[in-house]
Amino acid sequence: MKFRCERDVLDHAFTIARQATSTRGGALQVLSGLHLNLIGNALTVSGTDNDLTIQVAVDVGGQEDGATVMPAKLASDIVRALSSGQVEVTIDDEGANLSSGRSDFNLRTMPADEFPRLEPASGETVTLDASGVAAALDQVVTAASGDDSRPILTGVLLAPENDGLRFVATDSYRLAVRDLLGTSVLQTDQTVLVPSRALEAVGKLLSDADELTVSFGEHDATFCVGGVSVSTRLIEGEFPNYRNLIPEDHPNTLVVDRGVLTNALRRVRLLAQENTPVRLEMSADGLELIAITQDVGQARETIDAEYSGTDLTVAFNPAYLLDGLEVSSGAEVQLETIDSLKPAVLRSVGDEQFLYLLMPVRVS
Questions:
Q1: Which of these ranges, 29-38, 85-94, 117-126, 284-293, has the smallest mean pLDDT?
Q2: In 3D, which of 250, 284, 282, 278 has the Cα closest to residue 265?
């Protein structure tokens, strides 16, 4: 196997495919590698951990067809460290040789036939607008859980909603819901639970893309952007009944400039140490943010806001509240509350397609 390729092109392919390689200690060694397959001038770089698979198609100057598996981290680090320009890659029985300019590296490789066989995508393919999906993923994926002991909560629910597509994620402390109107992907009453890790990888590909193609099989989903394919196993199980978590009405409403609140929260949370919540004191006079950490100190900041309802103090995890503010759109946000213990809903003023529900923290 032998080919030439621009350093930046190869670096890009290795970086993307490497996201799917396994880093678990007990996994097969070959799953920590990148599979390279060259046919003519078409190079496919693949990474997989058997749950998530990423394949990147690259045009190269092919000289000799073949396949191999390189150690993902080391190969990626070497390619990135090379000087810009042409990289020549040669694979033989001794391993892989990567050379560029005066740099020359030799790597041990793994047998290509030990790499899992990657099945083609199944299911009907649908094309979506990349910018709309990118915005939805940015708003929702952050709310998914990172705790693998509760696999259902590590996924993002995709479901049909009002002739569109709904994205839902929760880690039991917050809930994010985003609707894409006029986007039909699933059949009526069909829902799929996609690992947030896979959607995070997809989201990174969408910034410069116009279209995204999606296909859902019985147990898998595939997302294609340009020359990159991201395939993942769907999570099996029943997603929580999130609709019951969203209050139908709120007696208290706070409207505030999103940027002003975000910056004030960042300052005040400096004193919210050791999992200390930030308190929001809401009244007709405006909004005061308070953080008090025993034996450390306290911070207070008052900002202008419009408030209707009874005077209320409610406390939140500052990181979770900040996440919601950062993914909200528009200049102003609206915080809807019932009391200091029931879920609060954060919305962008004038945007009915996104909501961020947040559980308050009980404080003495």
A1: 117-126
A2: 278
Q: Which tokens is 211 given?
A: 């279209």
Sheet hosting strand 344-348, strand order edge to edge? 192-195, 155-161, 164-170, 174-180, 354-358, 344-348, 332-337, 252-257, 306-308
Q: What pTM did the predictor assign?
A: 0.91
pLDDT in tens, 256-299: 999 999 999 999 999 998 889 999 999 999 999 999 998 899 99
Backbone angles phi, psi at 327, to 5 degrees: -95, -5
Q: How many Å separate Cα 211 from the centre of its chain?
A: 18
Q: Please give the domain boundaries of the chain with CATH numbers for all domains.
A: 2-114 (3.10.150.10), 125-244 (3.10.150.10), 247-358 (3.10.150.10)
Region at 316 (left for phi over 0; alpha for psi -120 to 50; beta for the rest):
beta
Which amino acid is present at 64?
E
Question: What sign results for the dihedral spanned by CA atoms 300, 304, 310, 315?
Answer: negative
230, 180, 166, 173: which is closest to 200 by C-alpha?
230
Residue 7: half-sphere exposure toward Cβ, Cα within 13 Å: 15
Q: Using CB atoms within 10 A of its CB, is residue 68 exposed (0-12), middle (13-18) or buried (19+)?
A: buried
Q: Which of 64-68, 70-74, 216-220 has the lowest mean pLDDT?
A: 216-220
